[in-house]
Each structure stands twice: as C-alpha cells, then as structure tokens.
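Narrative summary of target 7.
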Amino acid sequence: MAKPSEEAQEQFQRAHALMRNAQLAAHNDGDRFSEELAKSLTWFYGGSFSLAQGLRATYILLETVNRRLDALERGQKQF
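Modeled conformation, tokenized:
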C-alpha cells in the first residue's frame, strides 16, 4: 500500500494532466475564462505537488530519526 504522500503525488499528477487538457481545450475554443481558470489550477497543482514532495521528504527524515533513536535506546538498555 502506498503512503499518503505518495498517493497525494499520484493524484496531483493526474489532476495536472486533466488541467493541462482543459487549458488546451479552452485555448482552442477561445474561452478566456476557462483558460485562465485552468492556468490558475495548474499553478495550484504546482504548489500542492511541491508541498507533497516536502512532506514526503519530512516523513523520510522523521523515519530515519526514529530508527536512530530506537537504536540508541536499545544500546542504552544493554548496559
């Protein structure tokens, strides 16, 4: 099972593909409002995706710290 941040990244990628399609369709139809809306959603996607990447990096670092703390605790209990 994928971790929540990995699932979020996959969902953001799917949303991005749909937004790009909407942006291109609106541009081809000459629908300025829809085109600008699609552009704004594309920027929202970018920010959300970056946030998800940062959260994933934080989770990875936290897992490393927790493993090291567990190892230190096990080492101290041996004495």
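The mean pLDDT is 82.
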